[in-house]
Amino acid sequence: RYPKKKFAIIDSVIALPNVSSLVFHEHEGSYLAGVLAALATRTGIVAFLGGMEIPLIRKFEAGFTQGVYDTLPKARVLSGYLGASPKAFHDPAGGEKLAMTQFGQKADIIFHASGSSGLGAIKAARELNGIYPAIEKRRYIIGVDGNQDALAPGSVLTSMIKRVDVAVFEII
Asked: Is the distance from CB of 35 to CB of 48 less than 8 angstroms?
């Protein structure tokens, strides 16, 4: 409708001359998160916590899982999603519940790609670390999209950042 205007879209491709499609290689950064999880796990069990089950989030899961298995072939990767609608990215209570389930299955590190639902996963790790402060019992989250360490210092191992902010700034 507006051929003289310029647009940008994130995480999708629209093949029009006036649209810039900003896409990323989430699986690559997630692979590195998987390598780190495999190197840091004490139980040999790590987990992926996804928001909405869509191809984009499955890319995060696939990269993470491959990084874990390439580094620690005998590891076990648990995987869970919060739903099939966009609400799955805005459910901190659901994120906390799923994280507690994964921690209860002996995962000691969870990589989340779940939007604000991940705040619940971070809360779960922080609460468990308050109950079990010994280093051998600690539980960790690998955050996403921004440095999430400040949300729970000592409970966030690292964060996988794809730098959407930089891509948007550069396209503008």
From this structure: no
